[in-house]
Design a protein that fits this description.
Layout: E1 2-5, E2 16-19, H1 22-39, H2 42-55, H3 58-74
Antiparallel strand pairs: 1-2
The structure holds zinc ion.
Residues 6, 11-13, 15, 32, 36, 44 line the site of zinc ion.
């Protein structure tokens, strides 16, 4: 298991996610982002708007994902 925070995954808080694969952790962060979006949390709304800008460009989105995947792969496993 590895740990990444909401902030590390393009979000806005220090909430931690734990997963064995990058896909899994990305999914958890997405769900959390949606919850915060529904609550209308301003910091998360801002972070999501920035993500939306990235998502407009498929190449930028791909690069963002690859970078985060590398970051995830480079993390030490949780003890
Ligand atoms: Zn968050």
């Amino acid at each position: 298991m590895k740990t990444m925070t909401c902030k590390q995954l393009g979000g806005a808080c220090d909430r931690e996610f734990h997963a064995n694969s990058f896909e899994e952790i990305a999914e958890q962060s997405k769900k959390h982002g949606m919850e915060m979006f529904q609550k209308g949390d301003p910091e998360h709304l801002k972070a999501m708007n920035e993500m939306k800008e990235i998502m407009k460009t498929p190449q930028a989105m791909k690069d963002w994902f690859e970078n985060k995947r590398k970051e995830f792969d480079g993390l030490p496993d949780d003890k």
